[in-house]
Design brief:
Strand order of the largest sheet of chain A: 10-9-8-11-12-13
Distance between the termini of chain A: 59 Å
Radius of gyration of chain C: 23 Å
Number of domains of chain A: 4
Strand content of chain A: 15-25%
Radius of gyration of chain A: 32 Å
Largest interface: A-C, 43 and 41 residues
Oligomer: heterotrimer
Shape of chain A: flat
Strand order of the largest sheet of chain C: 4-7-10-3-11
Strand content of chain C: 5-15%
Chains: A alpha/beta, B alpha/beta, C alpha/beta
Shape of chain C: globular
Distance between the termini of chain C: 38 Å
CATH architecture of the largest domain in chain C: 3-Layer(aba) Sandwich
Largest sheet of chain A: 6 strands, mixed
Largest sheet of chain C: 5 strands, parallel
């Protein structure tokens, strides 16, 4: 039986074993002898040279099945998605402090988990495959580990203290993977360093027979989703930045940029911007795209049976067959027509954000101000409106950014994330300048209200008709003063934010109200 | 009424995925940890009434003897001791942590472990354990990766304690013989009451205590006994 | 389920014939290594199962066409007859145009005689742009198809078999929405997509003048019979005779055998007899649990909001507003069985259920804004509703895969508990475990 036929015979059996994963039919490729399997964007690629090599030691059917089991387990169990991959990498890096070592550790960890899952949960030839694979360096240690935790003989003799530690890790408990990968990385640290040094000396990477774990395993959509989930799950922006920076080159090579996928190479990823973009995606306000308005005119809509006592002027003689009698006669029911509203019902938005010294530096810690502004920007941009940004610290000394109305998400985020850390004074002329550039735009201002010329600002807001959403971070006397100053104005809404979860709730709710549109 | 689960009757409830040695190892690990935890809780019940424990010579001795009793029949390894240290950090496993008795308990575990060399990797631990290395006997080597708290290695009885990190105050207090190596810094009252043995601190020592005998080195330099520091007689 | 009667092969031939000649398409669904076009496949399954299908898509992309050809070939009615029986959706549709009208001559003589529309007489019912109909008319059609009964002026006809294909454009000027209680009555939602520029070009090149599925002579005979005053019960076997004759014509002309009424009934029997394997059974229960469960309020209700800090925020009960109706499992099981039959399988397995579920779920779920906004900008090949359903099925499947053995054991233990044995029910994080406990507690 030739290989293709063999694969056609085995693939349904393996799929059934793993409960029918959504993976396309694998394919054969020619590649390095020592690597049996690669996964590129969910497609399993089986290396013919590897199969030729293994043919002497094992039945080809068994080799194929073992490789497929391994590949599918990565898809179905560990890492399952790109977010998990990033988390494992990030945790390994906390211990190993080196990108290459952390990648290796995470990779080996995922292999152990996937293999052990297969051995425990399914009938698999993976142990037999490992029995016949070369065992040097870390692979030797891994084989020793497998011997202990699977209870099979893989042809490795000797003892290693590290195996004792490694054997106590709960590989199949997903909830403990973060802790487990740290322990795993720690136990393997020396060996990983040795391997890295050898690779450097020989200028050659040590291949993993069952495939490498890299971004190429995932589609761009999976990477995008993984990054978004990762942004939500990390403890702080530093951790996110570190992980993304480490993968910057690979991401750019795949065409992934800060603006998203499909932008082509050449746009490097800005990890901080990406963090806020992805985090804001979790809180985006949905706004109805096609608002309807009542036209005010009544038109015939449907029929209803006529009853004695009902008016006769709306009787439809045609559907009544010329008869006026109960049970036969139909009368028109009229309804007010609905037409499209003006697209301009959602205006553009001017975002005013305070980046003075009293505000959090968004590139060091999660800034609720930047996150809130990002959510608001997303809401407008999604409705094809434009956003302008006025980022100020001590504006009179030049510490400000003015971005005119635009739909360029990256540029807007750049402007929002800019941090000056100086004094706090805004120049109302700048605001007036920007307001003139659009047709009565909404204003969205985020600040802790510790503004030197707060009174002027209050006066300014009292003199305009634009809808204003003001958000202040924390409670203080300035916020109270502002509240007092604008309380007569119906077009100004004020919110306080103390916590990440407050911003999207309050801002979005209020935006929903002032858009006045049900979803 | 028809049984809504009838189709599953034919799935034998005992048929689960096969067990591999990893399951047994983890189960054993968990059982051992639970026994060790019970011993610790027992110690707290007896010694830390109302969750208060006074650090005194007599309370330490009493706590240690209760700990010895508690761990007598438990089969454990060095890795189990490390697991217990991490369990102390997790409030879902131990609702209350008192570092004094905890340190004494861990010391007892180390002293009675089968292995002559024990390595505890505690870098990720949120807490700093006090009283670790209490009465470490001769022939025992305890290597701790991470930082420790007060009273590290007190009453050392000939063993070797290596701390790949820093310690706080009263390091090596009352030690009789043996060796304590601290790679980074040590706190105040280092060596207070020590009568023999050596303390080698790779970094800075904030202050020495009233030392009777033995030797103390700071950054490879002998600082006790020296011109500036002479033995103290209680 | 290979019964040796060759029905599956007949149906597959019909699929291929339509796909190659009338409804040019790109396959977008892979099942058991074979690729199919979802709109065509589900259309065929709907016709076999006797279900109700809602077909959405941009104008002019073959929504109605696919239904017409399927109806024509599976039920053996000439295309012109199918066309003549369609109801088109516009606000001025009346019951008289949809169901029947009084015989005007008889009416003038003081007698009530109903002239039934072709729509209610034929088993193949196609409603074009159903969302342009007023809600009262939508409801009337769905009620009629649900029960098979059509009433007008105190007279009634009963369809012994029926299938409904309804098309709907995306929301635009002049459309109503199909309200939730009505949309829930559809078994499946599919999208009729653009076939791509190359196939579209082929469509453009085809001659409009000749269509082998049209036959003026047969169509005339059908129309004559349909509008005659013969009682419906007598009409049905005569219609079937005409269908048989038309079927012979099709066999000679295009080499395609349609299905006779007996064959269709037999197929439905075969479909209904296909069992579900344990995995598909358990997985479906897990899906139903996630879409109906509410820890705080007992069940999901569209008028009740989730509380913050609920333990179950990781499950779909947190992301949806409404509760899954009982029609969901009926549709899911029915279509999974139909699919398994189509693929000549002996039992329904997870792959069948996973293939069918998104289409059965898509129109029934009301997602929360927060979930939609997270997902709507992701790259996809499907319209948002179907994409969200596919993602949900995949995510729940992942959970099922992780706890499969434990869940099967929990269900086995529940079975014992139901029979009165003293057993300890298994605990778990997923809503299904709590639901099992509730059921046992209620039944004890």
């Amino acid at each position: 039986m030739d290989r293709e036929e063999l694969l056609k015979k085995i693939w349904p059996k393996v799929r059934k074993k793993h409960l029918y994963p959504q993976l396309p039919m694998p394919e054969f490729v020619e590649g390095e002898e020592l690597v049996g399997l690669e996964m590129k964007s969910k497609k399993l690629q089986l290396n013919t040279a590897f199969l030729d090599l293994m043919k002497e030691k094992m039945a080809e059917e068994d080799v194929l099945e073992a490789l497929l089991d391994h590949g599918i387990s990565h898809y179905m169990f560990c890492p399952w998605d790109f977010e998990t991959h990033l988390v494992l990498y990030s945790e390994a890096k906390k211990v190993l402090k080196d990108k290459r070592l952390a990648q290796k550790a995470a990779s080996y960890f995922m292999d152990v988990v996937a293999n052990t899952y297969c051995v425990r949960e399914k009938e698999t030839k993976i142990p037999e495959l490992y029995r016949n694979l070369p065992k040097q360096g870390i692979h030797r240690l891994m084989a020793m580990l497998y011997q202990v935790i699977w209870g099979v003989e893989l042809g490795v003799e000797g003892e290693d203290e590290r195996v004792k530690r490694l054997a106590r890790i709960p590989y199949l408990d997903k909830r403990l993977w973060k802790e487990s990968v740290r322990k795993f990385a720690k136990a393997l640290e020396e060996l990983l360093q040795e391997e890295a040094q050898n690779e450097q000396k020989q200028n050659q990477k040590m291949p993993n027979p069952l495939g490498e774990h890299s971004l190429e395993n995932y589609t761009l959509e999976e990477i995008d989703r993984g990054i978004r989930n990762f942004a939500t799950s990390v403890e702080d922006i530093q951790q996110f930045r570190e992980a993304i920076e480490d993968f910057k080159e690979e991401l750019s090579a795949m065409g992934y940029s800060t603006g998203g996928i499909g932008r082509g190479r050449g746009n490097p990823v800005d990890a901080d911007l990406l963090y806020y973009m992805k985090l804001a995606e979790n809180y985006t306000l949905p706004i109805k795209k096609l608002p309807m308005q009542k036209s005010g005119a009544l038109h015939p809509y449907s029929h209803s049976p006529w009853e004695i006592g009902k008016p006769t002027q709306d009787i439809d003689p045609w559907t009544s067959f010329g008869k006026i009698m109960p049970g036969l006669t139909q009368t028109w029911v009229r309804r007010e027509g609905e037409v499209f509203g003006e697209a301009e019902a959602i205006p553009d938005c001017l975002v005013i954000i305070d980046s003075s010294g009293s505000m959090t530096n968004p590139r060091e810690k999660l800034s609720y101000a930047v996150l809130g502004a990002a959510c608001a920007c997303n809401a407008y941009l999604k409705n094809d409106r434009r956003v302008a940004v006025y980022n100020f610290s001590d504006a009179f000394r030049g510490n400000k950014v003015l971005l005119e109305f635009s739909r360029e998400k990256e540029a807007i985020y750049q402007a929002i994330c800019r941090y000056f850390g100086g004094g706090t004074a805004l120049d109302l002329n700048d605001i007036l300048y920007l307001l003139k550039k659009a047709e009565k735009p909404d204003i969205f201002i985020i600040t802790d209200m510790q503004i030197t010329n707060l009174e002027k600002l209050i006066e300014f807001f009292n003199g305009i008709d634009n809808r204003v959403t003001a958000v202040h971070i924390g409670e203080n006397i300035y916020a109270s003063r502002f509240r007092e100053g604008i309380k007569q104005k119906k077009n100004i809404s004020l919110f306080m934010v103390k916590d990440k979860e407050d911003i999207p709730k309050i801002v979005l709710g209020k935006v929903r109200e002032y858009f006045g549109l049900p979803f | 009424m028809k049984n809504p689960f009838e189709e599953f009757k034919r799935h034998p409830s005992k048929e689960r995925s096969k067990e591999i040695p990893l399951d047994r190892i983890l189960r054993q690990k968990e059982e051992t940890l639970q026994r060790i935890l019970r011993g610790y809780e027992n110690l707290l019940k007896n010694e830390a009434k109302d969750l208060v424990w006074l650090m005194q010579y007599s309370t330490v001795i009493k706590a240690y003897s209760i700990a010895e009793e508690a761990i007598r029949d438990i089969e454990y390894t060095a890795e189990d001791i490390e697991e217990f240290c991490y369990a102390l950090d997790r409030t879902d496993q131990i609702p209350y942590l008192i570092t004094g008795p905890a340190g004494v308990y861990i010391s007892a575990l180390c002293n009675y472990a089968k292995e002559s060399e024990i390595v505890l990797r505690l870098q990720d631990l949120g807490i700093k354990i006090n009283l670790l290395g209490y009465r470490l006997p001769e022939g025992k080597r305890l290597i701790v990766e991470g930082n420790l708290g007060d009273f590290t290695g007190i009453s050392l009885e000939g063993g070797e304690l290596i701390v790949e990190g820093s310690t706080k105050n009263y390091t090596g207090a009352g030690m009789k013989r043996g060796r304590i190596i601290v790679r980074n810094n040590a706190g105040f009252n280092t060596g207070h009451g020590m009568t023999g043995g050596e303390i080698l601190v790779g970094g800075r020592i904030k202050g020495l205590g009233k030392i009777v005998g033995g030797k103390i080195y700071e950054k490879d330099q002998l600082i006790f006994p020296s011109e500036d520091y002479r033995p103290f007689y209680f | 389920m290979t019964t040796g009667d060759g029905y599956q092969e007949k149906v597959r031939r019909i699929y291929r014939f339509i796909s190659e000649n009338f409804y040019l398409n790109r396959p977008d669904l892979e099942i058991k290594g074979e690729r199919y076009n979802s709109a065509l496949l589900f259309g065929i399954l709907t016709a076999l199962y006797g279900g109700k299908e809602l077909i959405i898509g941009e104008p002019g992309l073959g929504k109605t066409t696919s239904a017409e050809y399927i109806g024509c070939l599976i039920y053996r009615y000439p295309l012109g007859v199918i066309w003549g029986s369609e109801v088109s959706g516009h606000p001025e549709q009346t019951e008289e145009k949809i169901v029947g009208r009084p015989d005007l001559g008889a009416l003038n003589q003081g007698r009530e005689v109903v002239v039934w529309s072709n729509f209610v007489q034929l088993p193949v019912k196609i409603v074009d742009e159903i969302n342009r109909l007023p809600e009262t008319k939508q409801s009337m059609i769905l009620d009629g198809v649900d029960r098979g009964n059509w009433e007008y002026l105190n007279e009634m006809i009963i369809n012994d078999e029926y299938v409904l294909f309804a098309t709907a454009n995306y929301q635009d000027r002049g459309t109503n929405t199909i309200i939730a209680p009505l949309v829930d009555r559809f078994d499946v939602l599919v999208e009729s997509r653009h076939p791509g520029p190359n196939l579209a070009f082929q469509i453009g090149r085809r001659s409009k003048l000749y269509n082998p599925l049209r036959h003026p002579e047969f169509e005339r005979k059908f129309h004559e019979l349909l509008r005659s005053q013969v009682p419906y019960e007598e009409k049905v076997p005569r219609l079937e005779e005409l269908c048989e004759a038309y079927g012979q014509y099709l066999k000679e002309k295009v080499g395609i055998e349609g299905l006779s009424k007996e064959e269709r009934f037999e197929i439905r029997k075969q479909i209904a007899s296909i069992p579900l394997d344990l995995d598909s059974n358990a997985f479906l229960r897990m899906v139903l649990a996630e879409f109906s469960f509410c820890h705080r309020y007992g069940q999901k209700r569209s008028v009740e909001q989730c509380q913050e800090g609920c333990h179950y925020t990781g499950y779909f009960c947190y992301h949806v507003k409404n509760c899954a109706s009982n029609r969901l499992p009926i549709s899911a099981v029915g279509y999974a069985q139909a699919l398994a039959w189509f693929l000549e399988e002996d039992e329904v397995d997870l792959e069948h259920v996973k293939a069918v579920l998104p289409f059965v779920l898509a129109h029934r779920v009301q997602w929360k804004d927060s979930y939609i906004s997270k997902k709507e900008s992701e790259g996809r090949n499907d319209p948002l509703q179907i994409y969200l359903a596919k993602e949900a099925v995949e995510e729940i499947f992942h959970r099922y895969n992780e706890q499969r053995d434990y869940l099967l054991e929990a269900l086995a233990v529940a079975s014992e508990a139901f029979e009165g044995r003293e057993v300890q029910l298994l605990d778990g994080d997923h809503p299904i475990y709590e639901e099992i406990k509730k059921e046992i507690a209620a039944l004890r």
